[in-house]
C-alpha cells in the first residue's frame, strides 16, 4: 500500500507559523521531503536589510535541510515568506498577503510560540494567546481550509496529574485577558496569572480555550507534545535548534560547569523527539480528515517508554565520559542529582559559584573578560524555573496515538515514526551529543581524540584534588582535635 498521509498533502498549500523555530523547521523539512506539498508559506518577522529570499536562505542554510537539498535542489522554490509577526495585531500581515492566504491555504500549522517561562504576562499572551485568536480569525476566512492544527503543550494544565485527550477549563477567561492586554497595567496583568506556575503554561492554556471555542466553525486539532528534544532518526539524528532545555543541561554538565541539579530523581522525564512530534502532527491530521475520527485532541508524549531523570542523567554521563566528550572542559564532569533543595543550594555555591568567581578573578588578572560568574547566574535562574517540572511527575493518556498506529499501513509506519519502538537511549544520546558538538558548538570530529585525552587528564586532576582535599581535612581535624586532646591527656 502507498503513503496515504502524503497523498493528503500532495499539491496542497500550507501556512506554517514558527517555521524558523525548532519544531517549525522539522515540520517544513518533512512536508517538503515526504509530502509533496505545492507551496509552503512561512510567516516570518521582517528583518531590516534582508530580502524575503535572504530570510528564506537563512532558514534553509541550516544543516537540517541537507538531505532535502541533496534529494531536491529546487525545494526552496516551493516556499514563500509572508512578512508578519505573531505578536502584532492581525499577525502583522499586509492586506494583500492576507488575501493571498485566504484564497490559497489548505492547511494551517501553528507552531509559533514563546517558550520562555519568565516572560511577563503581556509578552506571553501576545505571543501565545492573541496570536492564536488572530490565526483563528484568518482560518475562518480561508475558503479552502481543511485543517487548522494548533501545537500546544502537554503541560498547559499542570494541575492535572493525568492529562486526557479532551478540553480543559482555562485558569481564567481568555477574552478577559485579551481585553486587558492593551489597557491594563503590567501589575494588573500579572495578577491574572494567579497560581499558574509560569506565563508559558498560562498563555498556552488560554490559547487552547480559544481553539476549542472555534471548533464548531474551524476544523481544528490540538496537539500536545511533552518536552520536545532533539530528533531521533530523521532527517538528521540528534539535531536541535538551540541549547535550551535538556541539551543545555547535558552540555553544561559535560563542560564541567553544572555540578548539582535539584530534581526528584525517580520522577519521569517525558521527552519526545522532534521528528516523532512532527510525525504525530501529520498522522493526526490525516486521521482527523480521512477516518471519520473527529476527536480533536492528541497527546504526543512518551509515556510508554518513560525513563526517570536519574536514568537519563546517568546514561548521559556515561556517554560523555566514554564516548562523546566536549572540548574545553573546565573540570571533570561530575556532580549529581540532589533531592534536597538545601543540599543543592550548598553545592551550587561551593562547587559552581565560588569556583566561577575564582576563575573569573584569574581571567581579569590575566587581562581576559570574566564569563563564568554570569553563566552560573543564568544557570541558577534557568534551574529555578525548570525545578517545577523536575520535582513533579505527570501522566498522559495517549490512546489517540495508539488508534492512529493501528490504522497506518506498513509503508506509512516506515515513513512516520509515532512510537518509541526500538529506541535505545544510550545510542540516541550518542547521536545527540555528536550532533550538538558538530552543529551547535562547532567542535568537529577530528578533535574527539584530543577531547578524550583531555577528559582522562581532567579525571586524574579531579582525583588528585579530591585526595588532597581529604588529606587537608584530615590534617585540619588532626591539628584541631587530636593534638589538643593528646596535650590535655598528658
Give structural notes:
This protein is of the alpha/beta class and about 500 residues long. About 50% of the residues lie in helices and about 10% in strands. The chain has 18 helices and 15 strands. The strands form five sheets. Strands 3-2-1-4-5-7-12 form a seven-stranded parallel β-sheet, with helices on both faces. Strands 6-15 form a two-stranded parallel ribbon. α2 links the parallel β1 and β2. α6 runs parallel beside α9, α12 packs across α17 and α13 packs antiparallel against α14.
Task: Please state roughly what percent of the residues sit in beta strands, choosing from under 5%, 5-15%, 15-25%, 25-35%, 35-45% or over 45%.
Answer: 5-15%
Distance between the termini: 94 Å
Computed Rg: 25 Å
Structural class by helix and strand composition:
alpha/beta
Strands of the biggest beta sheet: in what spatial order? 3-2-1-4-5-7-12
The total beta strand count reads: 15
Q: Share of helix among residues? A: 40-55%
Q: Describe the sheet with the most strands.
A: 7 strands, parallel
Given as residue ranges, the uncertain stretches (5+ residues, pLDDT < 50) are: none
Number of helices: 18
Give the overall shape.
globular
Average pLDDT rating: 86
